[in-house]
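REQUEST
  id: r-88c1
  op: predict_structure
  target: Dihydropteridine reductase
  payload:
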Amino acid sequence: MQIYWTKINKIIQETTEVRTYLLDCPQDFTWEEGSHTHFALDGFNTGDKPNRSLIRHMSISTLPHEKAIGITTRIKEHCSEFKTILRDLTVGNEVAIFKTHSNVPLKREGKNVYLLSSGVGIATFRPLVLDYFNRADNVNGIHSLNIQSSNEFLFTDVFVTAPDRKFTSMFVNNRIDYYEEVKNLTVDKDGLYYVVGSDEFLVQNIEVLRELGIKAQQIILDKHEQQLAEFLSVDLEN
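RESPONSE
  id: r-88c1
  status: 200
  body:
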């Protein structure tokens, strides 16, 4: 396993509780849209075993052409040891990244793509939207739906409805409006439905989507194959 140590280049305060840490790109580090990585703080590997309290599984919210590795995360006033340390880091501090992989690349199958997210989960989808804007081949269109109770919505410079690009974006601040809109979207029985958020959010969305006639194979989660089978309760090969 290769561990990349890199420096924080810039810290962006996206909202009251959400920050994006932009990291320098190591020379041979590559990734694709929808990627996640293991993001670790100094000291995580100093003992006989990795200190898991200093490691988090994070989505990368940027694309390689942006020349920075973006880690977007919520840091509340009362938070974990990891978030407390992260909150105090500044530009120039070193962090580690390793085991980078994408479970949710943009599928180009000539279908509509629906991006369903909760809160900071939209960070996972930012690179998919940018990739689509750069190259729309074999994607009919994209619709993004994000729920954020605080009304402090993220990446509103990217998530802006653009009819000429066949891209629509909607933000809502309550679950009633959110699930009503999900019902409207599922009129498309052939679309691809990406879902990112807490496990509870995933379970609720899967239940709604399945009840509305969306097949398990049309639901894309940021989970590895074994977890997918558990969430969707099906044999994905059938």
